[in-house]
Amino acid sequence: MADLEAVPEDWSSALVVVAHPDDMEYGGAGAIARWTAQGKNIAYLLACRGENGIDSLEPTVCGPLRVAEQIAACVAVGVTEVEFLDHPDGTIEYGLPLRRDIAAAIRRHKPEFVITGNHRETWPGGGLNMADHIAVGRATVDAVRDAGNRWIFPELGLEKWEGVKYVAAASSPLATHAVDITDSFYASVVSLRAHKAYLEALSGDMADPATFLRSMAENVGKRFGGGLATSFELLAL
């Protein structure tokens, strides 16, 4: 595989848009911690509250718990602005309502960099991705364009925002760029560990944050000059 280029860092504000609590913590949080340490302003938007993500917990109990865990996970990487939409966990649909909600957030936060999760059909290594991730990632890419067009979603009552310089998808199988997270790796582990209830319901490698994240970071680092790194697919606007 080709070597990865460095993600551009000539920006000061970003918006992370993902489907569920824990999505950015499985790989991308180390980059977020690096960037907030540089003084960059980063906010999160989650399409759902993860209410259907733990089989042993009723959704009415699970949703608030996972919201609290996500907020703690964000604090661990220096993020305090966290918003949650009410799209249904597990059955999020790509379409105008989702695009509208994301475009509204882009117009409110006015980011220069928009970061989403992997919206491709598979993960690195070939495992199948899930529908929520694909829907939210696709909608995020389209919402960046929507947010910059004054004639799309005028009912939002928000001025258009054409200032997005970069759009990137974390942990994509088509990764083109990477970020050195050697100094922020520990913060990424703490961030994932904040999802305590979710991790307790898992088994296998994904239930062990330090081991799982280090393996990922080392593999990406092999394509990025050694050390620990996390990957992104930088998308053309």
UniProtKB/TrEMBL annotation:
<dbReference type="GO" id="GO:0016137">
    <property type="term" value="P:glycoside metabolic process"/>
</dbReference>
<keyword id="KW-0862">Zinc</keyword>
<dbReference type="Pfam" id="PF02585">
    <property type="entry name" value="PIG-L"/>
</dbReference>
<dbReference type="InterPro" id="IPR003737">
    <property type="entry name" value="GlcNAc_PI_deacetylase-related"/>
</dbReference>
<protein>
    <submittedName>
        <fullName>N-acetylglucosaminyl deacetylase, LmbE family</fullName>
    </submittedName>
</protein>
<dbReference type="InterPro" id="IPR024078">
    <property type="entry name" value="LmbE-like_dom_sf"/>
</dbReference>
<dbReference type="GO" id="GO:0016811">
    <property type="term" value="F:hydrolase activity, acting on carbon-nitrogen (but not peptide) bonds, in linear amides"/>
</dbReference>
